[in-house]
Design a protein that fits this description.
Blueprint: H1 2-16, E1 22-30, E2 38-47, E3 53-60, E4 63-74, E5 77-83, E6 86-88, E7 93-96, E8 101-108, E9 117-124, E10 129-137, H2 139-149
Parallel strand pairs: 1-10
Antiparallel strand pairs: 1-2, 2-7, 2-8, 3-6, 3-9, 4-5, 4-8, 9-10
The structure holds copper (II) ion.
Copper (II) ion binds near residues 80 and 102.
Length: about 150
């Protein structure tokens, strides 16, 4: 009987471990001037799964909150729209890049300079959480990095 229980438990645990179907590439945060109240965060968010995933929240220590934004241009004026959640289609990707989708890291408790890292947790509607480390870069550094990744 005891043996049977152990076996059942191990089966339960192994089914609880699932490979993440969410992949994040090229995660970076733009270095901002000393008194900046918000920093922009960028990445490529891929969904390798067979079902849609919805990004519902992002958190980072050292920041009051992290919002999901999209820059839209209306009548020649760029403004940022706050999204409550963002759907990543099955097999699809969302590019967080300057002037498009971005993470808005609000009210840092200190300055972050190029070369540092900022850890964030992405939370999805299905309960999955993904920890991602974002490199702080000057936007010029990123311009160079982009060329290398571009194939
Ligand atoms: Cu924004």
């Amino acid at each position: 009987m005891f043996r049977f229980l152990l076996l059942t438990l191990s089966v339960l645990f192994s089914t609880a471990l699932f490979a993440s179907e969410i992949v994040v590439k090229g995660a970076w945060v733009r270095e901002a001037p000393p008194m900046a109240k918000a920093l922009g965060g960028y990445m490529i968010l891929k969904n390798l799964g067979k079902g849609e995933r919805r990004l519902v929240a992002v958190s980072a220590s050292h920041f009051d909150e992290v919002m999901i934004h999209r820059t839209v241009i209306k009548g020649g004026v760029a403004r940022m729209v706050h999204l409550e959640e963002l759907a990543v289609p099955a097999g699809g990707r969302i590019e967080f890049i300057p002037g498009e989708y971005h993470l808005m890291l609000m009210r840092p408790d200190r300055r972050f300079i190029a070369g540092e890292k900022i850890d964030m947790t992405l939370k999805f509607k299905n309960g999955e959480e993904k920890n991602v480390s974002y490199k702080v870069l000057k936007s010029m550094d990123m311009g160079n990095g982009m060329n290398h990744n571009h194939h």
